[in-house]
Protein 1
Amino acid sequence: MGVVLRNALVIDTDPVVILPGTDVLVSDGRIAAVGQGLTAKTVIDCTDRIVLPGFVDTHRHLWQGLVRSFCADMSLGEYLEHLLWPAQRVLTPDDLEIGTLAGGLECLASGITTVLDYSFSPTFEHAEAAISGLRTSGVRALFGYGEPVEAPLVPDDVRRAVGLAGGTVELALAPLGPSFSDMAVVEETWELARSLGLRVMVHIAGHEQPMSALRERGLLHSEITFVHGNGLPDDELKLVAEAGAGVSIAPALEARMGHGAPMVCRTRGFGVLTGLGTDTVTAVAGDMFSLMRATLASAFLSGGQVTPADVLRMATVEGAAAAGLADRIGSLAVGKHADLVVLRANDINLVGTHDPVAAVVTAAHPGNVEKVFVGGVEMRRQEVAGAVRDAAASLADRLRAA
Ligand SMILES: [Zn+2]
């Protein structure tokens, strides 16, 4: 029974270890064993291959695959004015389905096997369509039912959406939160999440005291993934750490759109669980290799230093912890979902390395990804380019008219 990936250079993440000539046994979609001399009905030869846990993208708006590079030269304010607010008026469920499918496939192509999809859900039908796109793509997802800017969440719709979750798609709530709505609304949405057992994922703008405001109301807890937060004072970050909540930083996008000084050493310095997020392919690349390099490049500017092993952990098991998923994914621990990436270690940009972890973080790219498994199932390429191209053109026309 099962599948064995044989004779790989295995990199595990908790802790980061390099295991040459090692087999990974998968059974019933889970990691069954990591070692040598393992056997199974199906054997995949992984000689000259690196096998590691799938990457976890802790913040991404998947539908924005339809507006790729739309905001490449825009500031955050211009992105909101020229893309996000108009898009909220014209996005249809069909847009969300094909855009989310495209985004999910793009994740898998670079070895991202789990994504926190911060979606946009003005109606139940939008959420239903986006979740359909996620399921067709095959990527594992925490789907954030997104609060629109111009209308409140409809609690009954969120309750219906709970019925759409299961298998590789879990439901979360993605409200506007304390930086973008008043605290009475925040209290209602947090209570809705609590009553349904949903994690909260929420954008945070810095230069305020959102954590103090949440804590005063008993709303700061471990079931939250905060996004960005550049510029939060030290005391606010300490509150996040004390609560056991996670933070998703998006170093490439934050640098590109000017969110503020890099965060990686500040969050980790206070013991905050820190994951990496793409955020939006309207302005930056959507692969985890780019994101890991942006993290390394920005670390010095955030007041400290990180190693490639630290960055790999943020891209896998620490990101999973920041998303509340560390008991299920992020490492090769026996019993976790068999979400795996197989890289060709003999490609010219990786061969002969003296440090495989550093090579993955500093030198690898999506072209090195040979196979990707989600729950032990190998993800196959899907030909959707024509449909994505048509949908992207249609959405651009409607955005210009909005
Ligand atoms: Zn975002």
Protein 2
Amino acid sequence: MRLLVPGRSGLPALADLDDAALFRAYACAEERWVRSNMVTSLDGGATGPDGRSGSINNDADHVVFEVLRALSHVVVVGAGTVRAEGYPPLSVDDSLVALRRAAGLPDVLPLVAVSNRGTVPPTLSGCRDGRALLATTASAPGLEPARDDLGAANVLVCGDDEVDLHVLLDALHARGLDHVLTEGGPGLLGSFLAAGAIDELCYTVVPRVVGAGPPRTVGADGTPADLDLELLVEQDGTLMGRWFVRR
Ligand SMILES: NC(=O)c1ccc[n+]([C@@H]2O[C@H](COP(=O)([O-])OP(=O)(O)OC[C@H]3O[C@@H](n4cnc5c(N)ncnc54)[C@H](OP(=O)(O)O)[C@@H]3O)[C@@H](O)[C@H]2O)c1
């Protein structure tokens, strides 16, 4: 993996990046930081024709995807994506556990599913050990069943009728979960952008065109934002970058 734009990483341009260098390249300097990681086809598609991002991502994307998880305190995902992609409770990739520990991060990587309806996605159902959290609202029809399913401590009530993402981020902060990674989907990323709650977008651009059918990577709520390129990495024609939201 070649470093095309080093940004503030302190690494030399065109360096070959191993996992340790990727940890350095993607590190967050701030105490509280929210970033999103998405993969897109060259023509802006969020999925392949099968409706899953797994059909457009590739080996290069997978490497950075795992590094971003390993650098995070918590992963926040829309319930639609948890259902579409079948997310189980997460664990850090074995090859990155030592780097994660050296960075002072705990072994556990909780996953938060965001759902206005309060529906626990089937793949998280019954997980009561704190690796699966649900963010929902006080009026959600699924609130009480979700508490029974995941345990009350693992259900975060973040608003009355709609999940307020700032309330969610404060609830995570109260648990010491300050480096937040959201992996979408487009609906949730649109809400994060609309709420002004995103610091950084990480995008993987795969050299592939999918046509007009698949959704774009930012959903209907997404508000325009200007970004500054911080870092750019390339492997086999796939580009992976960090863009900071301009304040
Ligand atoms: N290209 C990529 O990197 C990428 C990443 C992720 C997903 N995807 C793809 O995107 C598709 C899913 O898209 P999507 O837009 O439906 O995903 P999504 O945002 O994950 O899911 C939408 C659902 O999540 C909940 N939700 C989202 N935003 C919310 C908010 N602000 N407040 C409360 N609940 C919220 C709602 O769940 P309830 O209905 O339960 O209330 C909503 O119906 C899948 O095909 C997936 O494969 C692509």
